Amino acid sequence: MIDLAALTIKSAREALKKGEFTSVDLTKACIEAIKEKDGDIHAFLEVFDDALGQAEEADKKIKAGVDLPLLGIPFALKDNITVAGHRASASSKILEGFVSPTSSTAVSKLFEAGAVILGRTNCDEFAMGASTENSAFGPTMNPRDLSRVPGGSSGGSAAAVAGDMVLVSLGSDTGGSIRQPAAFCGVVGFKPTYGRVSRSGLIAMASSLDQIGPFTKTVEDAETVYDVLRGKDPMDSTTIDDSTHAAGKEFNKTIGVPRAFFAGEGVSQAVKDNLDEAIQKFISLGYTVKDIELPNIAYALSVYYILVPAEVSSNTGRFDGVKFGLHADGKDGIEDYFKTRGAGFGKEVRRRIILGTYVLSSGYYDAYYGSALKVKDLITAELREAFKEVDLILTPTTPTPAFKFGEKSSPLDMYLADIFTVPANITGAPSLSVPNGSVSIEGKDLPLGILMTADLGREDNLFRAGKDFSGE
User: Which long-range contacts (CB under 8 A, 24 or more apart) does 314-317 make?
Assistant: First the structure.
């Protein structure tokens, strides 16, 4: 019997090459684990009926001696990443019944690398949320404590890996939606530099911030997936290659810590203590850790929640009940539009559309959206300057451990869960969350994560430090 909890991509690939088990065996083991566990967790919305057929094809290639980086490895996908011939709903009623005619570039690259696409996972509707409580199909539970959220918006993908139902999954990260649930669930979560991974075929929330990235059990596995996914794509004009960002200075194992950023009352003492432990561990590994000042970074969350709703307002305009997805009948075309969007969009999506329309409206554009862009530039310049002195910036991933369902009753409380992750998105920087122990609350060990952020294009620094820290 295959022990999914003991496997990584690396060890599974070695076992597949040696013939210890087949891709069909591995895929069946994942499907059985989903049947056994997912009734309680609700990470998956669908297991694809062609998954075993894909695994059979992978086994033929393995037997023929083909060597591909992900050959035979089952993947789970967040429900906003499209696969040709399969449903994609972004966990929203408004895309009910939509079957994608094409695959996203990320999925096409996974197929080229030999991966098996197992199924799609639950998420906050259109990736709008920090807890996976906003899905039209019900919440996902945290495998570490079923009374608590897995984080969001990619909570289903995080829970699928943390619950040992799959070895690896993909999510999307607009303000921390990979890294925050990774921390809550105790797995590795990685967001690349903006443009390093194509967004073609990703159902957009905020196009200038969205990035696809992996959830894995190890930093090395995250690096393996990133190497497959990255690269320019003619279907996405924002993609970049290795030459876009200068290599910069050599890695000299220097970490900057902006202590003022997480000194406030909203950060739990357990999280602060956990970061101090991480700092001491890095020092023991030969790293130099020094305090740095980032005076404008505290405004990153405010900037984010002006820019994102503005882009949401624009991107959701296509969902009109005419071209695809849900359609509600009214007395005329205008009423069709209003009824469809009223019935199809959940509360959080409607909230962001209204807010985004407001900040883009005549008379308020300069006061809100224009001002947010200026502060974004200030924060970006501040980080660029900091990276002249340090290789990485270290913070907690989240201000608290995973919270209970319904605990964040106001939108503002929920938005604060992303306070440490949003700076990487608004500046385009790559960022990696790595598990760092846990804190015991009400008899449950709740995972905690540390967040490393690097300069543009310096994913190599993140992977090197992450593997050092994790002992890989």
Answer: 314/356, 314/360, 315/204, 315/205, 315/206, 315/207, 316/126, 316/345, 316/349, 316/353
- Closest Cα partner for 82 from 224, 200, 207? 200
Place of tokens 């799959």: 166
**pLDDT tens per residue across span 106-164:** 999 999 999 999 999 999 999 999 999 999 999 999 999 999 999 999 999 999 999 99
Residue keyed to tokens 């690259």: 109
- Is residue 352 helix, strand or coil? helix
Please state, in angstroms and rounded to a whole number, the distance separating the CA atoms of residues 289 and 257. 7
Positions of the chain with pLDDT under 50: none
CA atoms within 13 A on the CB side of 267: 20
Judged by DSSP in three states, 232 sits in: coil
pLDDT tens-digit series, residues 291-306: 999 999 999 999 999 9
272 with 279: CB under 8 angstroms? no
Give the amino acid at 221.
D
Per-residue pLDDT at 204: 96
Say how many Å lie between the first and final Cα of the chain, rounded: 26
pLDDT computed for residue 365 by the predictor: 94
Spatial distance between the Cα atoms of 130 and 112, rounded to a whole number of angstroms: 32
Domains of the chain as residue ranges with CATH: 1-472 (3.90.1300.10)
Q: Which residue has the tokens 């357990």?
A: 270
Residues labelled catalytic:
78, 153, 177
Query: Read out DSSP for 166-218?
Result: -SEEEEEESSSTTHHHHHHHTSEEEEPPTTSB--TTBPPS-TTT-EEEEEESS
Phi-psi region of 242 (alpha: psi -120 to 50; beta: other; left: phi over 0): alpha
The pLDDT of residue 323 = 82
Take residue 273 and report the two structure tokens written for it: 């203590």
pTM over cut 0.70: yes
Identify the residue whose tokens are 């959940």: 346
pLDDT in tens, 341-366: 999 999 999 999 999 999 999 989 99
Rg of the chain, C-alpha, whole Å: 21
Tokens of 197: 């991974």
Residue 464 is predicted with a pLDDT of 98
